[in-house]
From TrEMBL:
It comes from Lachancea nothofagi CBS 11611. The lineage of its organism: Eukaryota, Fungi, Dikarya, Ascomycota, Saccharomycotina. Pfam families: Complex1_LYR. InterPro entries: Complex1_LYR_dom, Complex1_LYR_LYRM4, ISC_assembly_LYR. GO terms for biological process: iron-sulfur cluster assembly. This is LANO_0B03466g1_1. Residues 8-64 form the Complex 1 LYR protein domain. One of its GO terms (cellular component) is L-cysteine desulfurase complex. Transmembrane segments: none annotated. It comes from the Eukaryota. Belongs to the complex I LYR family.
Amino acid sequence: MSAPSRSQVLSLYKQIIKNANGFNNYNFRNYFLRKAKTSFRNASDLKDPVAIEEAWNTAKQELGVLKRQSVISQMYTFDKQVVEPLEQKHHIRS
């Protein structure tokens, strides 16, 4: 397999971010968001085609795990953490 194109990498990154945002738990959500950003930032410096392909395959595998885990996470409810913003209710003024 040849190296992934820029658009393929961006698409994979967006999918990972979308699925990381699917976690109801604040700590898990932010962990996976930080992990994705760090992993893709570190992989952007890769020059070796073999290392690029390994990073690509690892990211695709992690996306599969992330999809399954975010679905499971949505089955459970968690209390809001202190650091999470509360939902603000918008009042309609007449």
